[in-house]
Every structure is written in C-alpha cells, then in structure tokens.
Amino acid sequence: MTSEYSPQQGPAVSAEGPTRDRIIEQLHLHGLKPTHQRVRVAEILMAAPTHMTAEQILAEIRRAGERVSKATVYNTLKVLAQRGLVRQIHLDPERSVYDSTIVPHHHFHDLETGELRDIDPNDIAFSRFPTLPEGMEAEAIEVVIRLRKKRPVETPSA
Ligand SMILES: [Zn+2]
C-alpha cells in the first residue's frame, strides 16, 4: 500500500500495533478494568487498522487455543465500542463490523464478502453540500461506496 492515510487519533496509531501495555493503558484511560478477555479482544482488533466481525475475533481467539464463549466476545466488543476504543459499524441488521480506527472515515464495502476497506480521505472531495437543518451542524461525514463485481456486458446474440 502506498497510501499515506494514517489515523491521527485512536489507539491503533503505531505501525507495528500497540503493545499489551498500551492496550491496558488504553482500557484504563477509557475507564475499563483490563480483564483478560478485554485485553485479548482489544489486542486482536487494535493490532493494526482493521475491520473485523465478532465471529472473526472469536475465531482468532479460538485459533490460539483459548476457550471463550461467543457471548463473552459480543459483550466485550459492546463495552469497547461504548467506551470509544473501537467503532461499531452497522452494515445491515444482522452484521456489525468493528473498526479499530475511531476517527470518522470513508469505506469501500464489498457486498459479496462483507469486507470493509478504508478509503484515503484525500481521495474524496465534495463539490456540493446540502444546507443542514436549522440549528444543526455536521458532526461527521462518512461515505460508504458499496462494491459489486462488474456485470458482464450483455452481447446481443446473433
Ligand atoms: Zn475503517
């Protein structure tokens, strides 16, 4: 990747990923006790800027030979998202993806695989912007570009 996009805030700023100590520090900073499960989930999610579903995180923990329930992972993610350590992105009613980059940013969303990828903020510009409702200000602008495979061009059969 040649993109220079790097999140300016949030825990996942260092290229090599935060150490366990930094994760524990982040949990403390957000008012959370660094329980084993919280540290494990945060470690997986915050190792690098990434997007993962709860199932992927669960699979990652189990791959390491640890026993953990689905409910524990879900609850842990909920708490981490509530406290602002990660961001929960609702792709559709049944699927949430957790994003380790907490500043607002844009995404490609592959509809087939469900994968989310960050878009370099410099690659999007607006030439027109709606008037905001009275008394309101924009807190964040986030664009999702949904992707599907190019459909084959229909060639009229001769
Ligand atoms: Zn993202």
Automatic annotation (TrEMBL):
Transmembrane annotation, as ranges: none
GO CC annotation terms, alphabetical: cytoplasm
Gene3D superfamilies for this protein: Winged helix-like DNA-binding domain superfamily/Winged helix DNA-binding domain
Keyword presence, Iron: yes
Top-level taxon of the source organism: Bacteria
SUPFAM superfamilies in the record: Winged helix' DNA-binding domain (SSF46785)
UniProt-listed Pfam families: FUR (PF01475)
GO biological process, one term: negative regulation of DNA-templated transcription
Keyword terms, alphabetized: Cytoplasm, DNA-binding, Iron, Metal-binding, Repressor, Transcription, Transcription regulation, Zinc
Location of the protein in the cell: Cytoplasm
An MF annotation (GO) of this entry: transcription cis-regulatory region binding
Main location as per UniProt: cytoplasm
Entry keyword annotation includes Phosphoprotein: no
Similarity-based family: Belongs to the Fur family.
Subunit structure: Homodimer.
Name listed for the protein in its UniProt record: Ferric uptake regulation protein
